[in-house]
Amino acid sequence: MLRVENIKHSFKTGNEWTTVLHNINFTVNKGEMVALLGSSGSGKSTMLNLMAGLMKPTEGHIYIADHDIVQMGENKLAEFRRKHIGFIFQAYELITSLTVRENVELPLVFQSISPSVRKQKALALLEQVGIPDKADLFPSQLSGGQQQRVSIARSLITEPSVIFADEPTGNLDTKTEEEIIAILLKLNQSLKTTFIVVTHELEVAEQMQRTFSLRDGYLINNQQPPADAESAEGGAG
Amino acid sequence: MKIRDISRMAWDQVKRRKVVTGLCMTGISIGCAAIIVALSIGQSAQTYVTDQVNQNFKMDEITVTPGGGIPSRGGGGGGSGESNENLDPGKLTAQKLEIIKSLNHVVAAAPFEDAGYMQMLTVDNKIADVQVKATDLRMLTEFGFKFKQGGVTDLPGMVVLNYGATLGLIDNETRQKLYEQLGADPFNSALMDQYNSMSTLPSEMYRQQVQLQATDYSTSEGNIRLSSALQVGGILSTAEGTDDLRASYEKIMYVSLETAAQLTQQLSFGTNNGMTPNVEENSYKTVTVKVDSTDNIKSVEAIIQKLNLNAMDNLYQQEMLKEQFDMIKMAALGIGVFILIIASISIIVAMTMSTHQRRRQIGIMKVLGANMGQIRNMFITEAALLGLLGGLLGVLFSYLIIMGLNKLVGTAGDSLNFVIPLTTIPVGLAFAIMTGVLSGIYPAISASRTDALTAIKRD
Ligand SMILES: Nc1ncnc2c1ncn2[C@@H]1O[C@H](COP(=O)(O)OP(=O)(O)OP(=O)(O)O)[C@@H](O)[C@H]1O
Ligand SMILES: [Mg+2]
What we know:
- The structure holds two protein chains of two kinds.
- By secondary structure, chain A is α/β, with parallel strands linked by helices.
- Chain A has helices spanning 44-51, 74-84, 100-109, 115-128, 144-156, 174-191, 202-205; strands at 2-13, 16-28, 33-38, 59-64, 67-68, 85-88, 162-166, 194-199, 210-215, 218-219.
- Chain A has a single domain (30-56, 72-222), classed as 3-Layer(aba) Sandwich (Rossmann fold), CATH 3.40.50.
- Chain A has seven helices and ten strands.
- In chain A, the strands form two sheets. Chain A has a six-stranded mixed beta sheet with strand order 6-7-8-3-9-10. Chain A has a four-stranded antiparallel beta sheet with strand order 2-1-4-5, with helices on one face.
- In chain A, a hairpin with a 2-residue loop joins strand 1 (2-13) and strand 2.
- In chain A, helix 3 runs parallel beside helix 5.
- Chain A starts with a strand and ends in an 18-residue tail after the last strand.
- The relative contact order of chain A is 0.19.
- Chain B has three domains: 3-53 and 321-456, no CATH class; 60-111 and 286-313, Alpha-Beta Plaits, CATH 3.30.70; 113-281, no CATH class.
- Helix content of chain B is 52%, strand content 17%.
- Chain B is built from 14 helices and twelve strands.
- Chain B has helices spanning 3-16, 18-56, 82-85, 94-102, 172-184, 189-199, 244-248, 257-267, 297-306, 315-357, 359-367, 372-411, 424-448, 452-456, and strands at 61-66, 106-122, 126-135, 147-150, 158-161, 170-171, 209-216, 223-226, 230-236, 252-256, 287-291, 309-313.
- In chain B, helix 2 (18-56) packs across helix 12 (372-411), helix 2 runs antiparallel to helix 13 and helix 10 (315-357) runs parallel beside helix 13 (424-448).
- The chains are: A alpha/beta, B alpha+beta.
- The complex binds adenosine-5'-triphosphate (ATP) and magnesium ion.
């Protein structure tokens, strides 16, 4: 499903190049939910953004559904992202001028899907993330946890192959964090969507099926994926 | 992305960003109003002046005079006039008149000989200066004249007056006195009013007898000769929209060619005093030809010229005016476009500011799968919408401005009235939208190039 091959990434700061990711290799199977764990500055976000095609790696390849996204141009990537990739941000990133439902529908607007279909899908997803009654409110009228639910619904509306979540609970208190993680786990189970969740909290990572740990740009526990889709470790606590 | 979605999102933004919207709309509306007002003023002035010209010059008529040029061979249509041509090929003969009458597109053709100005004397001794024109009286209606009273009869000594010739007939003493008073005190407005009201004083002339009189100024005594009695058989009505004062400026008496010949004999002093209709049998000095449409004027003229005759029309009057007003309109358009260019700078600045403020939003949309084209279209649509709104406001402005102008001109008491021709509104709106779109292009492209990641990254 997702294969990262020999990824190296460097940033230029001033006259110097700093390599923040060194020779990263890993594979994620379809329907898996994995954590990308590491302390601040270890390169988690950079890795996630590379996988989502939001930037190009200095070296290496990234395959999603057998397409090398590193080779794609901007518009091709936009197209690809539309079909295959969902994104959940730490700070929700909802559009304040649109209602909750319109925010959820937005990715479908770029695909020219008809309003009635969009609406139906959006309402169904809002139901799944537990806020069906908030459809017509604006993001500013919701709590952080509720906004993140909206953002989750939005990431799912295109039925993507993989969803990238960058510290989805980073702005939330522990209780809300548990709720959000529970929702993600539930959706992963029911929809079989692949999730890659960035976190710096071990407790969060432990609930995922597998964990990749980054330290100073190195992948330190490259666990091989299980031969078969496993079921023993997963599930919410 | 569906047009509906794009426009709705654009509308949302326009509604939310009141300052940007206001700024852009103001600029565009002024430019658009300038274009509409300028075009309207140009158009109204053109209509006004053209009306004036049309009242004085008939556009669908050709004045034919004898040809003075070298005789040319091959006037294909002039079979019957062949024998005369040997004597004077340029002569305007009765046969040629018949040929002209039978031409395609010719509605009417008749001689109109200008016999000069004469004094008309009524039975109750009232006097007016009239222009005497000799013509075929039966043709008058075919030239578009309408009879207010009476009509045409073939009786000898029968004349037709235009409406103006029935106005302001004053007896000689009163007239002399008023002239003297006015001469002594030319700025006396009471006298002037009196004079004006007298000029439009109507007299019942239908079925009245009149005489023409001529004074021989060649001798010091100033011999006066009177014509035989003439009978007013008909009064013509004025052209629509002409008021009495205006009508009174033009006093015309139409007489038949026979009567004109008679008058020549009665009034001529041997010397040329202007009364020289010189009506030769079967030949004319001037023939007026009425054509069914101004489009056919030139083709009819070409045929007439083949008869060795001169043909002249009044179209050049219109053309001259048209050229002048086209120039005025172009200049006006230029001013409007100039204002729009200035306005477009305000849009570019405002929209660029707005794209900068919205970088984050653009970034999110890109992450959610919007491509560069979609982002660009969203911004251009927004700019076009701003243009349209500014344009609509501009239309409103232009109506207010024209209303104000009419108030201003109205007090001056002239018949000039400004209207906004409906066709100028789409022109104004088109320029407004175009300005919006053109000024939106740069901000839209720069928005579409926003890097998603840097846009979302918080500082
Ligand atoms: N645009 C950039 N230019 C230069 N250096 C960068 C840039 N983005 C990230 N870095 C550097 O790359 C390293 C990894 O950053 P990254 O954002 O991936 O860390 P992270 O693991 O997500 O940290 P956090 O948990 O704080 O979000 C850091 O040292 C950071 O300073
Ligand atoms: Mg990070």
